[in-house]
């Protein structure tokens, strides 16, 4: 007898890394372990393969959620008509080639999307927006980059406050309008994409969260890292729980179960 799946399948995007002899697909484990708990889903790592090697339509048809991970690499600027990157900038064209169309297809199909750090940047670019490539060059913003002089856990400690848009998706999820978040990024959102709404900003005006209210399902991107530290608490836990709820609603709808949510 065929069993009915009870856990939503949540795609987790991987990065491609060229090795000396052979390529590697890699994803930091914290983006995988946050799926069973607190999201309540089953993680499926999505490899950053070459164009044409993944059938993205089939993939989207099987997914109940899409988690876009962070990464040291940056989206290639030609995707948003930006000026060429400075020499030495780390890119991952294979990942761009998978995630950018995948985001558009997932949103179109009503699959819930949660983007983290590089993930929020990919969401904005996929939806026609642009990125600041070096926010640390601005005179009037503070340094949002990862601290290199401290051990792993300290990198993910709260770095600054965010102010959420009153009545917005994130403020409703958080149940408040301010929070403290960590900060490990060098790029940031410049022009928001089509139908993209700013959900939170840092005190220096850097965009910290976006959503897409016109989407059929949950679409949220955050510039910080809600997946670390552990245990996941406060606003970070609430974000994963809200995403998980949307993924379960998608699973019920996909299976044609009676209590399927809108
Ligand atoms: N490269 C982009 C995105 C930053 C980002 O996603 N950092 C991840 C850090 C490592 C991790 O915890 O996964 C930028 O610099 O803005």
Automatic annotation (TrEMBL):
UniProt GO MF annotations: gamma-glutamyl-gamma-aminobutyrate hydrolase activity
Presence of keyword Hydrolase: yes
Enzyme class: hydrolase
Enzyme Commission number: 3.5.1.94
Biological process (GO), any one: polyamine catabolic process
Protein's UniProt keywords contain Manganese: no
Metabolic or biological pathway: Amine and polyamine degradation; putrescine degradation; 4-aminobutanoate from putrescine: step 4/4
Protein name per its UniProtKB record: gamma-glutamyl-gamma-aminobutyrate hydrolase
Organism annotation: Nisaea acidiphila
């Amino acid at each position: 007898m065929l069993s009915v799946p009870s856990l939503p399948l949540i795609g987790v995007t991987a990065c491609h890394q060229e090795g000396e002899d052979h390529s590697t697909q890699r994803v930091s484990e914290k983006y995988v372990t946050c799926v069973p708990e607190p999201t309540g889903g089953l993680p499926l790592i999505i490899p950053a393969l070459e164009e044409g090697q993944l059938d993205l339509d089939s993939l989207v048809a099987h997914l109940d959620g899409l988690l876009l991970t962070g990464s040291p690499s940056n989206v290639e600027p030609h995707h948003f008509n930006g000026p060429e990157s400075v020499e030495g900038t780390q890119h991952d064209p294979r990942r761009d080639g998978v995630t950018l169309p995948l985001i558009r297809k997932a949103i179109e199909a009503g699959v819930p999307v949660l983007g983290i750090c590089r993930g929020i940047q990919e969401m904005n670019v996929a939806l026609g927006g642009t990125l600041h490539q070096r926010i640390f060059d601005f005179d009037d913003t503070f340094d949002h980059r990862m601290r290199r002089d401290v051990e792993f856990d300290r990198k993910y400690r709260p770095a600054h406050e965010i102010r959420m848009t009153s009545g917005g998706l994130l403020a409703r999820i958080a149940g408040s309008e301010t929070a403290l978040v960590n900060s490990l990024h060098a790029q940031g959102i410049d022009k928001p994409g089509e139908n993209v709404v700013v959900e939170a900003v840092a005190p220096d005006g850097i965009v910290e969260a976006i959503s897409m209210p016109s989407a059929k399902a949950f679409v949220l991107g955050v510039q910080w890292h809600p997946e670390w530290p552990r245990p996941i608490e406060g606003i970070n836990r609430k974000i994963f729980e809200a995403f998980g709820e949307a993924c379960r609603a998608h699973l019920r709808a996909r299976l044609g179960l009676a209590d399927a949510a809108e």
